[in-house]
């Protein structure tokens, strides 16, 4: 959706925001309230992945595959994780790494897995 001045719009929790700017490194998008003319000072930020998730159905499907690991039987989890690592695009690697470190345990230098954080 675009504003009257052809700026991207984003709706979150019933409020409408207009794209203000990108961060210097390009990983964050800053949004300001669409009602700024009426004195609203609301601002939010999203990651570039979140914006990509909302606009690209294939990226959204690939992202949901990471979450689906929660439903894989524990005996098959490492095999499913390896298959997913080879399938997912590089831009989802940090999210998969976070999931692995938090819920499965990262691989140590000696080849064993550290206990998961959660």
Notes on the protein architecture:
- InterPro entries: Znf_FLYWCH (IPR007588).
- This is FLYWCH-type domain-containing protein.
- One of its GO terms (molecular function) is zinc ion binding.
- Residues 3-50 form the FLYWCH-type domain.
- By secondary structure, the chain is of the alpha+beta class.
- It has two domains: 9-54; 56-104.
- It has helices at residues 48-55, 57-68, 77-87, 93-104, and strands at residues 9-12, 15-22, 28-33, 43-47.
- Strands 1-2-3-4 form a four-stranded antiparallel β-sheet.
- Strand 2 (15-22) and strand 3 (28-33) form a beta hairpin.
- Helix 1 (48-55) crosses helix 2.
In short:
One of its GO terms (molecular function) is zinc ion binding. The protein has helices at 48-55, 57-68, 77-87, 93-104; strands at residues 9-12, 15-22, 28-33, 43-47.
Features:
118 residues; alpha+beta; 2 domains; four-stranded antiparallel sheet; 4 helices; 4 strands; elongated; zinc; zinc ion binding; zinc-finger
Which helices and strands appear, and what pairs or packs with what?
Blueprint: E1 9-12, E2 15-22, E3 28-33, E4 43-47, H1 48-55, H2 57-68, H3 77-87, H4 93-104
Antiparallel strand pairs: 1-2, 2-3, 3-4
Helix pairs in contact: 1-2
Terminus-to-terminus distance: 38 Å
Helix content: 25-40%
Low-confidence stretches: none
The helix count comes to 4
How would you sum up the global shape? elongated
Secondary-structure element series? EEEEHHHH
The description of the largest β-sheet is: 4 strands, antiparallel
Structural class: alpha+beta
Sheet with the most strands: spatial strand order: 1-2-3-4
Strand content: 15-25%
Could you say how many structural domains there are in total?
2
Mean pLDDT over the full residue set? 86
Number of strands: 4
């Amino acid at each position: 959706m675009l504003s009257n001045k052809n700026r991207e719009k984003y709706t979150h929790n019933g409020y409408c925001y207009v794209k203000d700017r990108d961060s210097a490194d390009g990983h964050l998008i800053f949004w300001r309230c669409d009602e700024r003319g009426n004195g609203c000072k609301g601002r939010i930020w999203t990651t570039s992945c979140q914006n990509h998730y909302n606009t690209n159905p294939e990226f959204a499907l690939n992202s949901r595959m990471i979450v689906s690991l929660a439903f894989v039987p524990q005996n098959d989890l490492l095999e499913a994780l390896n298959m997913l690592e080879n399938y997912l695009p590089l831009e989802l690697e940090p999210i998969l790494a976070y999931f692995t470190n938090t819920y499965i345990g990262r691989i140590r230098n000696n080849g064993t897995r550290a206990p998961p954080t959660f």
